[in-house]
Amino acid sequence: MSHAAVDHPILDPLLAPPFPKAVLPVLRNPQLRKNVAHAIDVIQTKRARLVTEKSDWQQLRTAASAVRAHVLENLAAYLEQFEARCTAAGGTVHWAANADEARRIILDILRQENASEVIKIKTMTSAEIQLNPYLESGGVSVFETDLAEIILQLGEEEPSHIVVPALHINRSQVREIFARRMGLHDLSDDPHALTAAARTYLRQKFLKIPTAISGANFLIAETGGVAIVESEGNGRMCLTLPQTMITLAGIEKVLPRFQDLEVMLQVLARSATGERMNPYTSLWTGVTPGDGPQRFHVVLLDNGRSAILAKAKERQTLKCIRCAACMNACPVYRQTGGHAYGSVYPGPIGAILTPQLMQMQHAQSLPYASSLCGACFEVCPVKINIPEVLLELRSQVVNQERRHLGRFFDPMYLGLRVANLLFSNAWLFHVAQSLGRMGASFFTRKDGWIHSLPSVGGKWTQTRDLRGLPGQTFHEWWAARAKEAK
Amino acid sequence: MRASLFITCYNDTLYPETGRAVVRLLERLGVDLDFHPKQTCCGQMHANTGFRGEAFSQAKRLVRLYQDVEAVVIPSSSCVAMMRDQYPVLFQELGNEALRTEFAALLPRVYELSEFLIDKLGVDDVGAYFPHRVTYHASCHGLRGLHLGDRPYRLLAKVRGLNHSPLPNLDRCCGFGGTFSVKNAEVSSAMLAVKLQDVVSTGAEYCTALDNSCLMHLGGAMHRQYASMKTIHMAQILAATETSPAEATL
Fold it and tell me: What DSSP string runs through A321-361?
C-alpha cells in the first residue's frame, strides 16, 4: 500500500500515468480488486436477469440508439430549443466552451448568491471539470449528498465508477471512514447503521444550505426540462429544499421530446443498476413560484464534445447515457477498477471518451486498455460500437506516434513494420519462419517449450510459456505431401 | 465440394497440427481441399494495434488471392471476424470501388471451420472419436463476433467418447487480445488467471476452442503452472477417429 497511486489515484488525464503503469498498484491491491469484482458481478447478474425478462430488449436498444443518433445529427437545433424553452420557463442558460469557463460561470453564480456553502447531487460532469477543488479554492465549501460521493469526499478517495463511484470501497471501509470523519467511534458496519449515520450528517446540510448543484441525466428540448434519476432520494432533497439550483450538463445530454424518456428510462435503469425502474426520477422545468428553487441556472458544457461530434465514426461516443453497463461487463475493468484509467470516466466508454475529450493529446494509452472482446458493445443500451471506436483511436495514436523518431526503434513498432514487410511476400514470410525457428531454438528448453524471451517477448513469458516452434510449418507439410502424392 | 484452406500466419508457423487436422477432417468428408501457397496473414494484428495502412495492404492481398475459389475455410474465429467486421471498414476508407466489389463477392464464401461444417456441408456428425473429457472455450470472436451459437456444441455432441464439461463464465475473455497481451501484459495476465481458474475447475483433460490464439494463451499458462490439462484445437478433435487418433502434441 506504499505506492502513491493507491492512496491518491490521479483522475486528471493531463497528469495521470499511462494505463499499463497505472494498473500496477491496483493489481497489487487484493482488497480493491475483490471489492470491484464482487460489486460488478452483483450488478451484472441483476442486469442480465432484467434484460432477459424483457422480450423486446433488442428493439428497445434499437429505439434508444435511434433517439440518441437523431439528437446528435440535430444537436444545435435541439440545444437552441432547450435554451428557449428553459428560459421561457424562468431558467437561465449559460454556455461553457470548456472546463474553465464552466467553473467560472458556476463560481460567479455562487458569488452573486453570496453562497459560502453548496450541496451537490452526484454529477460526474462536475468531476470531469474538477469543480469541487476549484470552488473550494474560491472560498465555497462543497458538500456531496449522494451516499457514494459522501464516502469518497469524507474518505478523500477518488471515484472508480460512474454509477457507483465508491464500488471499490467495502462496507467495513465505509464504517472506518464514517467513524473517523463523523466522530462516531461506536459505529457498526451494519448497512442500517451506516445509512443512519449518513442521514444524520446529510439532514443538517439539507436544512442549512440553500444552494445546490446538480448534473443532468437528460435535458428535454421540447419542454426545457431537466431529468435526474437516482436511487437514494438525496437528489430530490437538493431539488426541493434549496432556493437556487445550478445544473451542469454536457451538451450531448439533450433529448428531443418528453416521451423519449419512455425508452431512455427503461434502458437506463436496467443497464445501470439492474432495476426495472430507478427509485427516484425527478423532472423539473424552470422555476415554479412557491415550489422548489426560485433561481435556476443551466450550464451547458462543450469541453471537447463538439469536436467529437464533427467526426463521423467517433460521433457515436456522444450517444452515451452513462449507464456504465460497459464497465460492468468489461473483463479489463473487472481486474483494474476505475482509477487506472486516470479519468473520471473509466472502463470501455472512458477508454474512448477521455482521449477524445483531450483532443487526442493525452490519455493515448487508453484506447489500448482493451482486449477487444466486444462485451461492451453487446451490453450497450444505445449500441455504441466501442471496439470500432477503439480501433479508430488506435490508428490515430499510431499515426501520431510513428512520426516520432524515438518510436522508430521501439521494438513493437519495429516488429510490426518488419511483420508487414514479411506478410507482403510469401517467400519472405517463409524465410522469416525458418530464421525464427532457428532463433527460437536458442530459447527452447529440453521440454520443447520456451520459458523466457527477451524484449517484448519477455512480456509474454513473464506469466506464460510458449510452445517451441515445430520443425515443419503447415505449408511445408502440404508441399511435401503433394510431392509424395505425385 | 471444393474449398481452399486459409491456415492463417500463426497456425502455419506455430500450430501446423491444426492445419493437418483440418485437411484430414475435410478430405474424410469428401471435400476437395486446396491450399494457396502464397497466403500469409489477414492483417488482424496490424489492424488491432492501429496500423491501418499495413492492415489494408494485407487485406487487399488476401482478397486478391482468393477471388476465384468456391469457399475459403479458416480454422480461426478471430481471423474470420477480422474479415467480416474490419475489412469492410478498411476497404470503405482506403480501398476503391473495384476492391469493394471484389470483396463483397468473396465475403459470403468465407467460412469459419464450424460454419463450414454445419452451414455449408450440413453435417454435425463428422465421424470423430475422442474418448476424453473436454471443455469448450467459446472465444470472444466466435461468440460475439461470428455468433457461432450452438454450432460448436452440435459438433462436439456427436463426437463418440467425448464427455463435455461446460465452462463457467463462458462469455469472459481469456485476456489474450493480440498485442494487448504484451502491451498490457499485467492486466492480460490477471484476466488469464481468472479464466484459467474457471477452465481448470471443469476438471477436463482438454480445453478446446476454434481459435488457437486463446489456446496459445491458456496453454502457455497451463504449461507454466504444471496444470494437469492441455489445449487442443477443435479441428484435431473432429479429425480424430478410432483408427487414427489425434496427433500427440506437447
Answer: ----HHHHH-HHHHHH-SGGG-SSS-HHHHHHHHHHHTTTS
The answer to whether B126 and B25 have CB atoms below 8 angstroms apart is yes
What is chain A's pLDDT, residue by residue, as a tens digit (486 residues)? 334 444 588 999 999 999 999 999 999 999 999 999 999 999 999 999 999 999 999 999 999 999 999 999 999 999 999 999 999 999 999 999 999 999 999 999 999 999 999 999 999 999 999 999 999 999 999 999 999 999 999 999 999 999 999 999 999 999 999 999 999 999 999 999 999 999 999 999 999 999 999 999 999 999 999 999 999 999 999 999 999 999 999 999 999 999 999 999 999 999 999 999 999 999 999 999 999 999 999 999 999 999 999 999 999 999 999 999 999 999 999 999 999 999 999 999 999 999 999 999 999 999 999 999 999 999 999 999 999 999 999 999 999 998 888 887 888 899 999 999 999 999 999 999 999 999 999 999 999 999 999 999 999 999 999 999 999 999 999 999 999 988
Terminal-residue alpha carbon distance, chain B:
34
- Flag whether residue A292 sits within 8 Å of chain B, measured between CB atoms: no
Q: Strand, helix or coil at B85? A: helix
Nearest to B70 by CA among B19, B124, B111: B111
Which chain B residue shows the shortest CA-CA distance from A433? B13
Phi-psi region of B83 (alpha: psi -120 to 50; beta: other; left: phi over 0): alpha
Q: Do A426 and B216 touch (CB under 8 A)?
A: no
Residue A201 C-alpha cell reads as: 450528517
Q: Confirm if A52 and A276 have CB atoms less than 8 A apart.
A: no
Using a CB-CB cut-off of 8 Å, the residues of chain B touching A471 are none
- B41, A423 contact by CB (below 8 A): yes
Q: In Å, how far is B8's CA from the nearest CA of chain A?
A: 10
Residue in the structure block whose three cell numbers are 494463451: B217
Which residues of A are less than 8 Å from B188 in CB distance?
371
| C-beta contacts of B239-243 below 8 A and 24+ residues apart | B239/B20, B239/B21, B239/B22, B239/B24, B239/B25, B239/B28, B239/B128, B240/B21, B240/B128, B240/B129, B240/B130, B241/B28, B241/B127, B241/B128, B241/B129, B242/B129
Taking CB atoms and an 8 Å limit, are A368 and B183 in contact across chains?
Answer: yes
Q: Which of B231, B232, B224, B168 is nearest to B194 (CA)?
A: B168
Name chain A contacts of B168, Cβ cutoff 8 Å: none
Up-side HSE of residue B139: CA atoms within 13 Å toward CB? Answer: 31
Q: Which three cell numbers stand for residue A378?
A: 453487446
Place of cell 502491451: B183
A293: its cell numbers: 428553487
Three cell numbers at B111? 467460412
Cell readout for B184 is 498490457
Q: Is A298 within 8 Å of A226 (Cβ atoms)?
A: yes
Cβ of A434 under 8 Å from any chain B Cβ?
no
Which domains are delineated in chain A?
A: 3-307 (3.40.50.10420), 323-408 (1.10.1060.10), 411-485 (no CATH)
Using CA atoms, how far apart are residues A423 and B46, in angstroms rounded to an integer?
11
Which of A398, A456, A470 is facing B182, going by the closest CB pair?
Answer: A456
Q: Residue A165 and residue A148: Cα distance in Å, rounded?
A: 6
